[in-house]
Amino acid sequence: MTNGARVPEDAIYLDYQSTTPTDPRVVEAMMPYLVQRFGNPHSGTHAFGHEAADAVERAREQVAALIGAEAREIVFTSGATESNNLAIKGAARFLKDRRPKLVTVATEHKCVLESARSLAAEGVEVTVLPVERDGRLDLDRLSAAVDDRTALVSVMAVNNEIGTIQDLAAIGRITRAAGALLHTDAAQAFGKVPLDVQAEAIDLMSISGHKVYAPKGIGALYVRRRPRVRLEPLFSGGGQERGLRSGTLAPAQVVALGASAEIAGREMAVESQRLAGLATRFLARLDGVPGGFVIHGDRVHRIPGNLNIGFPGIAALELMAAVPELALSVGSACTSAEVEPSYVLSALGLDAATAGSALRIGFGRFTSAAEIDRAADRLASAVAGLRGTGLQAALETATYQQELER
């Protein structure tokens, strides 16, 4: 059931961590495979099938090239949720008798934490590590948690709420030394920051198309071949995708993911600089807002297209209601009855009120400088209106800062 809301004509989209619009160049690449080139890529007896299969393999090469992998190490899925489930459950179940332990992190995506919970019910020993105040993993704590009984370590490359980048190369060294596998949920990192499965000793990597300007419903899982990573499939079928993910592939979707990977590879460096400039510009226009604001997460090790900002004394939902033309998000899980504080922000040590003031603001490929200016000015005006002026805002800010520094 929907609420019947319509997008305002003057709307500005600032929720790129939630999803990205499909790049017109990606749409152009995929369209022929919806109409003219409609063959089943698994039909090897005629040209229609061969044509579709060739397109799938080309896309496999494009995805692999962006992470330093071999094409045959890419398994196409429906998205990062499926990839995370296949990687975590598949590896843990295959290795359960020899290595019954799984290590992950408190700020992981819900599908990772729920997969870990499901495995715990099956008898797997699950260790969920905390993070530091900046959202990064303490490497000494990780090293102490990983041993010769550990099957898999799962650490998100870039956090979906606060944009924090983890040190995968250092994590990979710790994991490899213990003989365990390293899985990373790279849904927010793929196509946005450089990734190298060899240099970072990554064994399994989850990818999602709709976070990188491809359509929803397509993703991939990198599965290392040498040394070979063995997984137990999630479901049975015709044995497609190396027997790990049965089912007929959708060539149009696969082609779209390949095209998005190739575009990202060409444009990533320049785009990162542009987004960093937009973030700086946005923050500069908020500098005079009464009562100030606080940025959550690491200020240096974060993707340039993400800001998670708290406005002391103002509930994020109240602020969002005051700026309906801005497409923002809150770091919270909403149900029909209540809004719970973000578990990611809680893991940083923030209390419910502090976490409840946070907005996630995401910039992307189609965000303009003019939109940044308009959005920041509108947000600053709304904050000033909700706060009032003067002493009360200053007192709220002082209390907020003391809470952060405790």
Instruction: Supply the CATH architecture of the largest domain.
Output: 3-Layer(aba) Sandwich
- Through-space gap between termini: 43 Å
SSE succession: EHHEHEHEHEHEEEHEEHEEEEHHEHH
Count the DSSP helices.
12
Helix content: 25-40%
Number of structural units classed as domains: 2
**Order of strands, widest sheet:** 2-8-7-6-5-3-4
| CATH homologous superfamily grouping of the largest domain | Type I PLP-dependent aspartate aminotransferase-like (Major domain)
Please identify the top-level CATH class of the largest domain: Alpha Beta
Task: Please report the total strand number as a whole number.
Answer: 15
What's the CATH topology label of the largest domain? Aspartate Aminotransferase, domain 2
Instruction: Report strand %.
Output: 5-15%
- Unreliable segments of 5+ consecutive residues: 332-338, 390-395
Largest sheet: 7 strands, mixed
Indicate the structural class: alpha/beta
From the spread of the alpha carbons, the general shape counts as globular
**Overall mean pLDDT score?**
93
Keywords: 2Fe-2S, Iron, Iron-sulfur, Metal-binding, Pyridoxal phosphate, Transferase
Catalytic activity: (sulfur carrier)-H + L-cysteine = (sulfur carrier)-SH + L-alanine
Organism: Aliidongia dinghuensis
Enzyme class: transferase
